[in-house]
# Entry
Amino acid sequence: MSKDSVTIIDNLSGRQIELPLKRGTHGPAAIDIGRFYRELGYFTYDPGFLSTASCQSKLTFIDGDKGILLYGGYPIEQLAEKSSFLEVAYLMLYGKLPAPEQLNNFKKIITHHSMLNESLKSFFRGFYHDAHPMAIMVGVVGSLSAFYHDSTDINNPQHREIAAHRMIAKMTSIAAASYKHSIGEPQVYPDNSLSYTGNLLNMMFSVPCEEYHVDPVAEKALDLIFILHIDHEQNASTSTVRLAGSSGANPFACIASGIAALWGPAHGGANEAVLNMLKEIGDIKNIPSYIARAKDKQDPFRLMGFGHRVYKNYDPRARIIRKMCHEVLEKLGADNDPLFELALRLEEIALNDDYFIERKLYPNVDFYSGLIYKALGIPSNMFTVMFAIARTVGWVAQWMEMIAEKDQRIGRPRQLYVGPAQRDYVPIDQR
Ligand code: CMC
# Structure
């Protein structure tokens, strides 16, 4: 019996099998259950994938108990302090930090792919003026597959690389155009002299009739938030992109599926939900009744921006962003915004409440990102779009990693069928 294996004994039949353990660089080993069904005749059952590793990956490592997050082996704290969004994007796509020339070249490539095909404009026009920008994002990003379908051979590594560059580059233009559509202003073309986040701010907030200057505080704050959101291993949206991509689907369509999965309030939609919740609470005096609602099992209300599936200690991104949140609000003079005061009071109360302490429910990254976006003048229905821009890097990196895998197969989970037992069709006149 190998030391690096686990023996499973089937008490029903008396059979036993030895299953190999797969060990990664960090984190718990995984039992390779590929032979499980063939040899024992059972499926494994794990709704929500609480114990199931769906793939192996070199991109991101999380230790939820210790509050550790590594991108390509580098701690998030170091990248947040010393790096930039496009440098980390390079790390995710190519597995190493770029040399100066490589980074310059990468920036140039991303900058020069940011224009949208003019025909795409009519897609935006087709949306009703009050369409949620995430709905527009799902549609327009998916429609990119119509522009780059025949020219994208996913089995060709160069084609995959170009698709990744296009996706990262065009995401800001699509996001800004979605916003401009929702407020009835003309789309602004990208400006190649600006940084990635400076360009986004310019496309969102400038108008043809006035000069606009990118605020360096906002530009830097967005760059940092984007670094924090780049990837988060096999979360719901990333798993969706991988599953869609496993069938060989067009990469732009796969990213659209990721955007759809991100939109939910339990995932990326939480940042918008935090702001809506703060507005609903309205006043510090109302916090206790909302805390009581969050604890009440009969009430579906949850404190948005608290808790995380993986971080059961503290979200390391939240620690970084909390500090930045205070700095940004102070610099922009928004620190006496009553909503911010309310948020901090809520944070303090929840952190000292037994219900939240026992369940290890700490404020997550989205609790603070929404407050920063608000201070930057970004409307709340664009918060999840901001998350999607940054996470696009993780999605394309994970998609590229999966497609490049030898023996890559279509993802096909099994199920436990609990419907009616087999029965015979009853003709309609006999029912
Ligand atoms: N408010 C009140 N109670 C909560 C909350 C909350 N925000 N989150 C979890 N709980 C309770 C839950 O009721 C359960 O209690 P009990 O054990 O008594 O039944 C316990 O804590 C464990 O919760 P769970 O639902 O089993 O945990 P999960 O790992 O399935 O869910 C979560 C994680 C993030 C979906 C959940 O904490 C949540 O809904 N949080 C609010 C939404 C949110 O902020 N989401 C953003 C996550 S971070 C961004 C991202 O990565 O996408």
